[in-house]
Task: inverse folding
């Protein structure tokens, strides 16, 4: 006999013969309830366990995984914050260098204009006045 087949289970000889004192309706419901119960058990065979130990162990594993992910994200966040600080410092240094170069360029232009005036004194005269 195939114990996993619900039809074979209901046809098995495990059920006692019908009691003449019990109505035929009550007797016909007993195997149907057995069939429904057996089919429910068969449906549950492929499902994961839902007992307390399994749920707790799954929860513990999930918490461990999440904790590891949090630690990884914290380390990544610290690394990104450090990189951000370094880039901000570099940006400030470049701004200072830009201001310094701008000032140096302005000073060189002034010196150039002064040297032109010294070499060509008439270049200092406004051409509109001539």
Result:
């Amino acid at each position: 006999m195939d114990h996993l087949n619900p039809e074979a289970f209901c046809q098995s000889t495990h059920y006692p013969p019908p009691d003449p004192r019990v109505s035929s309706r009550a007797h016909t419901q007993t195997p149907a309830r057995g069939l429904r119960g057996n089919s429910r058990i068969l449906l549950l065979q492929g499902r994961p366990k839902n007992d307390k130990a399994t749920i707790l162990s799954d929860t513990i594993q999930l918490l461990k995984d999440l904790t590891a992910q949090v630690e990884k994200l914290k380390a990544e966040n610290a690394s990104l914050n450090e990189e951000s600080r370094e880039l901000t410092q570099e940006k400030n240094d470049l701004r200072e260098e830009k201001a310094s170069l701008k000032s140096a360029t302005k000073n060189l232009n002034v010196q150039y204009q002064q040297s032109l005036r010294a070499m060509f004194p008439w270049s200092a005269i406004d051409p509109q006045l001539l």
The chain has three helices and no strands. Residues 1-47 form one domain. The first helix runs from residue 6 to 10. The chain has two domains: 1-47, 50-121.
